[in-house]
Amino acid sequence: MTARIAGQLALVTGASAGIGEAIARRMARDGANLVLWARRSDRLAQLAEEIASTTGANVQTCVVDVRDHEAVVAEADRLMAVTGAPDIVINNAGLAAGMALVQDADVDDWNRMIDTNVKGLLFVTRAFLPAMIARDSGHVVNIGSIAGRQVYPGGSVYCASKYAVQALTEGSNLDVLGTGVRVSGVNPGMVETEFSLVRFGGDAARARAVYEGTHPLQPEDVAEVVSFVLNAPPHINVADVIVLSNSQGSIHHIHRDGG
Ligand SMILES: NC(=O)c1ccc[n+]([C@@H]2O[C@H](COP(=O)([O-])OP(=O)(O)OC[C@H]3O[C@@H](n4cnc5c(N)ncnc54)[C@H](OP(=O)(O)O)[C@@H]3O)[C@@H](O)[C@H]2O)c1
After folding, report:
1. Which residue CA neighbors atom 1 of ligand 1 most closely?
2. Of 75, 132, 136, 166, which is most buried with the most CB atoms under 10 A?
3. Is 152 a catalytic site residue?
4. Strand order across the beta sheet in which 33-38 lies
C-alpha cells in the first residue's frame, strides 16, 4: 500500500546520525523526498547518496546549525523560494551535554542544551509554520523524550529542555488550531545512538556502560513510530507518543540482564 506521505517533502534536523538518520531513511522508504540538515556535511552527503540510490528519493542536504537563527531563516527562505514549505518538519536535532549536578555544572553545557533543544527547535518551527498555515497543511513532529516527563539526578537541564519541548509541542498545537497543520510529539525512552557519546564528551567506555546488559530502542524503532504518526489520515493528529523499549519501565526503571 502506498504510504500517505509518498511524494511529500520532509525536512529533518539532526539527520547526520541516530534517530534523525533513521527517520530520514524511513521516510524515503515511505516515498517522501528529503531535506537533511545537520552540522556535519560529510555525513549528510554520504547518507543522501545512499538514500537516493536505494530508494530513488530526491534528497537535498544543507549544513545548518539550528542554534544560528540567521542561518535557519536564510536557509528556510532559500528552500521555500524553490520548493515551497516542506510538508513535514521533524525537529530532531538535540543533545545532552554532561551529567553534572546543578551546583557543579558547566554553564556552557547548559547553553548548548537550551540553545539546541529549545531555541533551535523554535527557530526552525517559526521559520516554516507561517507558510504551512498559509497553505493550510503541514506536519511538525517534535522529538521530545521521556526526560520531558521525569527527571533524574544530573539531568536537570537536559530534562528541563525536554519539558520545554513538551510545552512547545502542546502550545504550538493550540496555536495552529483551526488550520490544516498538525504538531505531534514523539517521546522516546533510551535509544542506542551517539547520544551518550556526545553527552560524555567522546568517552566511549562511559557511553557503552549506559546500554550494557539492557535492550534499548534502536533508532529504527523510533522511526517506525514517527512513520505511523506521519501517515495518520489528515484529520487525525497523533499528538503525543511515549515510546519505550520493553526493558524500560520509566526513566528510573531499566531492566538489565541478570539484574
Ligand atoms: N538517544 C536517546 O536515548 C534519546 C532518547 C530520547 C530523546 N532523544 C532525542 O532524540 C534526538 C536525536 O538524538 P540521538 O539519540 O539520535 O543523538 P545523536 O545520535 O547524537 O544525533 C543527534 C543529531 O543532532 C544533530 N545536532 C546536534 N546539535 C545540532 C545543532 N546545533 N544543529 C544541527 N544539528 C545538530 C547531530 O548532527 P551534527 O553533530 O552533525 O550537527 C546529530 O545528527 C535528540 O533531540 C535527543 O534529545 C534521544
Report:
1. 191
2. 132
3. no
4. 59-63, 33-38, 9-13, 88-91, 138-143, 181-188, 240-243
CA 59/CA 16 separation, integer angstroms: 13
- β-bridge partners, 180: none
Going along the chain from its start, the domains and CATH numbers come out as: 9-185+221-238 (3.40.50.720)
Q: Which atom of ligand 1 is nearest to the CA of 95?
A: 47
* Distance between Cα 174 and ligand 1 center (Å): 26
DSSP conformational letter for 67? T
Alpha helices in 97-251 (DSSP H): 107-113, 121-135, 156-175, 195-199, 204-211, 219-230
Distance from C-alpha of 176 to C-alpha of 136, rounded to nearest angstrom? 10
Q: What angle do CA 153, 184, 16 make, to 5 degrees?
A: 70
What does the pLDDT look like over 92-101, one tens digit per residue?
Answer: 999 999 999 9
Q: Is the CB of 46 under 6 A from ligand 1?
A: no
User: How many whole angstroms separate alpha carbon 256 and alpha carbon 259?
Assistant: 5
Pocket flag, ligand 1, residue 92 (CB < 6 Å): yes
pLDDT digits (tens, 9 = 90+) for 134-189: 999 999 999 999 999 999 999 999 999 999 999 999 999 999 999 999 999 999 99
